[in-house]
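seq:
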Amino acid sequence: MNPSPTFRVGVIGAGWAGQQHLAAYDALPDVEIAAIAGQETDVVASLGERYGVPHLFEGWEQLIELPDLDAVSVAVPNFLHAPIGVAALKRGLHVLSEKPLARNGVEARQMVEAARSAGRVLDVAFNHRLRGDVQTLGRIIGSGELGRPYYAKASWMRRRGIPTIGSWFTSREMAGGGPLADIGVHVLDYALFLLGEPVVESVSAITSGELGSRGVGGMNWETARARGGFEVEDFASAFLRLEGGGALALETSWAAFRDPTDLLDFSVLGTEGGAELRAVGAAKKAVGDLRVFRDVDGEIADYQPAAEPGRAHAAVVENFVRLLGSPEQWPDNDGSQALRRAEIIDACYRSAAEGREVPVS
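struct:
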């Protein structure tokens, strides 16, 4: 560990996500991991020993009171994002939150307002937009090579991917929603990123919980069939109308009778060309199959651009730490973009519940 760190950070949450943040911070020479907080005290102790962390807590309240702390990562269940994030921001700490920013747009707005009031960074771990293939496709679309995008489709589909039926993931109160809020928010994020952040004017969506409600589709089949407590959807589909007449179609599932291998994809039609990205194996496949479709002088000129593997949470944490060292960029990184994602997700759930197209507030 660097004996003279530039930034002192704490990580709240000792599960899989928190461990990704810890490993990423540990790899940076200008960061000291000052504290870890988590209810799994044995796991916290083990992580503290592995990374040489001096302060270990069970409660997050103690962690954010540490003097000389610069920032925290919030890697806990969704219902805790807003209370912890707001409290940390009010303490003058920068915050890197796991996705989604919060359970809903109301809580997300509270976090953004706290960031603005404190003049601190509020960032979200949207790691899939930092995939190498997504970044490569983003540069192609951004260059104008495909002309003006007018229609796109994006999805993340699982066969058996419900994270522990009966846990906080499948509680509407604690999670805010099912795959639309969990992995669908990643799809929404990278799709809007690739399209250049168009304004979403309205949505029409459906949701279904046919499989999860029967204990079908859990990551652990026997455990899934033995447990109840499934209160969210297991599949969602949404049609988003974009400013200027374009459209984006989204699909996401935790459970569906489809190919057993996860699929993360994106396709776009533009006025001068199109493109398709398919990552069979989803997050486990570092680089998906990327193809660009174009005509040159009336002849088909399709090609497959090369892309480097993404670096997931390592890239997210590096970007966050880079922001901490650039105070002039803090006002532009107050979580507003993640808030817009939350408001779109809210509109999708409202549309599904009411059976009609609804505007995005």
